[in-house]
Amino acid sequence: MAEAAAGARLDAALLSVRGDVALVATEDGTYSLTISFNPYRFRKHIKRTIFRIRRVIQNTIWPLTPTIWGGVTTAVVVRVVTAQSGSWWRSGSLANILWKWDNLFPWQQKLPTQVRVGWLSLLAGTVGLASISFVQRSLLRLLLNYKGWMFLDHGTKPSPLTKMWFLAVRALSGTQPSLYTYQGCLPSLPVPCLKETTRNFMLSVKPLLSNEEYNEMEEKMQKFMKNEGWKLQLFLQVRAMFTVSWLWEWWEKYVYLRGRSPIMVNSNYYILDGVAFTPTHLQAARAAALLHAADKFKFLIDWEKLDPIKLQKTIPWCMKQYERVFDTTRVPGKECDHIIHYDHDPQRYCAVSRKGVWYKLPMQVKGTNGKWRTALPHELEKQMSWIIMDSDANPAPEGQNAIAALTGWHRGRWAEAREEFFWDGINKISLETVEKAFMHIHLEDRSPSDLTNQAKMLIHGDGKSLWFDKSVTFIIFPNGKSGMMAEHSYADALTVGHMWEWVTTEERYKGGLYRDDGHCKGFDDSKYEQVELIKPQRLQWRVEAQLHKVINEAFLANKQLCDDLDLVVMTQDTWGKGFIKKKHISPDAFFQLAMQLAYRRDAGKRALTYEASVTRLFAQGRTETVRSLSIESAEFVDSMLDDSCPNAERVKKLMLAADKHTQLYKSAMVGKGVDRHLFGLYVASVGLGYDSDFLKAALKMPWTLSTSQTPQKQTEGRWNPEREDRHTVSAGGGFGPVADDGYGVSYMFPHDDAIYANISSKTSSSATSSARFRDNILRALADMKKILSDGDDKAKSK
Fold it and tell me: Which of 170, 160, 229 is nearest to 196 (CA)?
């Protein structure tokens, strides 16, 4: 036992090295603190600090740059210093103001006149440029408050004033912006008009409620408006005056971090790789290439070299969510979790797992010139191959192989286990090592049988292998297929989807990363620099009887949740958005209406429907809800179920419903949605001690259909899914259902001739079946296509 304890303490000493400080445990139980100096890390830290200071200054004075400031102020100083004493430069009205400023500081009187003139010229030039910069930023912010351009009908030419607005925005936006350049220019999220919010809410529930239920809800709404409503509205308006976003902090805390349910399936989501494209069938090579590409994307974020996203190449989006894509973990709490984002580490590493064994994989290698550099794909492939061999030869013992199950468990129970079993020793050190990794790679030892099986393995795996708290996890299968899972609280799917699209296109961008035999370029190739690789460090865990029992309890709970997920991936490859656009209909609206029709056939009733929109036109914007069930959509569905209704009438109602949905979506994007406002009012009511029957009734209505369109083509110029890269498209991603008797649907239009959807529900519900709902969606899509096509055929026959 003494030898085992000494060995454990030695492992702890080896693992506790944190850069320049190491806590060393000796065999007699004493500890010694060793402080060392790491020149490489110190230099990188200094470089990073200087960069941050410079970026803060640049983003503050933007659109000016240090070069412009230096050039202009130097020219002003030279011009003033060399001017005659009686000239305007030295004795004009502006000069007189500066001389008065100079008199406020008596110590300057002792300086030579030319020095004082130069100093005052520098001050004048700096203040003048700062004023110009402030005016330019203020004008841009003012212009970006205008959102009327969003509501132009598709195909309609903008008015001369709108064209002038676009030109003004482009002119004031400057050139060569960095990742966060526009953050200070974006308008704040507005607090919607209370009357509009309540009116739109009542319109959205009218097709869902009976007349009696609707009248009861309206009575509660009227009471709310007369009593506490205006007070809560005023509170939000005051809060909006003193915060960048009145919603950001509340949304993250109360929607995500205070939730106590497992985040596995219930919160985390997944994204698939190519449906019919696998660039290599070698697991180690695929893992290495994806990891290398992710590290490059992290570099673009860390050094703010990633281009900010702009709508129509003009209107900037908020990029704040990118700050925490990597180096981030969610830490459980008994009542509320919190997010930890670790500072950029030049000696960064990745946490890699396989068969329950965890490794610390360094991302740096020392070149033959003695300098550290980022590992290349073929070098990472060798490391991945070693991990596969080591985990096969020395699999994790029982208990240790399911440590990650705790992260998928009830958040309060995970917090208690963390506090009891991971507060010190080897467990604390290994836990911190995983959490401080910039990301997680899981090397699965089973290959998926089809897309549906792959999706299930991505969203929850076997319930004990994935670290659900990590911001980003890549899962690579033995046959070379891959995908990813993301924790949801720190960022939305649009941001993470951008990262995944960039990473997967990097595999084949400009010649790609693989050889014809599937290995990464440079693998066992003497033409490349040969370096001595640092062997990945295998993490150790101490799992005694009590912890083993807790881990097993967590795994059994996870397994029940995994088994309860009914997930199906739908593929439709004969037609898609190309046909829909020709009919002058929004593809998103078309699919939303198809789901309304499908659910009516599936359940025999209507469903309160949530579609995720984005509010990133505003600073710190996240999402807003589009209430897809509308009076117009309900009338369209009724017409489709009425055999006596002529097709011409159905088409008319389809067009009206689609237009309505498009308007709802645009309204959500410009901050005029319903649900975030109601959420904010409810949080305010709890904080201020108001008991609002209306807000409680409104917010407790279940989202039977929770839907989202998977974004694509966020990496302009890197690929073309409509033409030569069509074979590489993904089937998107998905998430678990929100309601116990409802569906979760994530859909996408990968190109003009395909529609994909990921459909989830619960097997424990007798009211749902993902396969049945998939069939109903396909039937609804076909029926809607038919009525549009029949209308064209009749028009041609005339």
Answer: 229
